[in-house]
Amino acid sequence: MLMFHVYLIESEPNGKWYIGYTTDLKRRLAEHNRHKNTSTAKESKWKLIYCETYLNKMDALGREKFLKSGSGRRFLKKQLSHYLNES
Predict the structure, then answer these.
(1) 23 with 61: CB under 8 angstroms?
(2) Cα–Cα distances in angstroms (integers) from residue 82 to residues 41, 51, 63, 76, 77, in the given order
(3) Residues 33, 75: contact at Cβ < 8 Å?
(4) Residue 43 maps to which CATH number?
(5) Which domain holds residue 8?
(6) pLDDT digits 0-9 by tens, 41-80
(7) What is the number of structural domains in the chain?
């Protein structure tokens, strides 16, 4: 069964975030770290800090769009408050 992942990665040097969508999370993270994405190529090392998995592609794309919005970023900051306080 094909799964759809909405993910949040963080740049280890400076804490920048990138939100994306993929069907192969491991491959996608490797691509970010090999500078295969123009949006993330300037940063040196990315790590996965949050992921949601969906059965339906449109559900995942809708969630990605929400997480990229101001309300979505506020949700992520609240959801990851313990992680962010530790960093």
Answers:
(1) no
(2) 28, 16, 22, 11, 9
(3) no
(4) 3.40.1440
(5) 4-86
(6) 998 899 999 999 999 999 999 999 999 999 999 999 999 9
(7) 1
